[in-house]
Amino acid sequence: MVARVKQKRIAELVSKGRRLDGRDITDYREVKLEMGVVERAEGSARVRLGKTEVMVGIKIELGEPYPDVPKQGVLTVNTELVPLASPTFEPGPPDENAIEIARVVDRGIRESKAIALEKLCAVPEKKVFIVFVDVYVLNHDGNLIDASALAALAALLNTKMRKYEVKDDEVEMKSGYTQLPVVNHPIAVTLAKINDKLVVDPSLEEEQIMDARLTITTGKDGKVCAVQKGGYGYFTKEQILEAATIAKEKAEELRKLVVNE
Amino acid sequence: MKLEVGVLGNADGSAYIQQGKNKILAAVYGPQEVHPRHLTMPDRALIRCRYHMAPFSVDERKRPAPSRREIELSKVVRGALEPSIFAEYYPRTSIDIFTEVLQADGGTRCASITTASLALADAGIPMRDLVVACAAGKIDGQLVLDMNDLEDKMGEADMPVALMPNYDAITLLQMDGQLTSKDFEKVLNLALDGCKQLYTLQKEALKSKYVVVKEEVKE
Question: Which of B1, B76, B134, B135 has its CA 20 to 30 A from that of B172?
Answer without folding.
Answer: B1
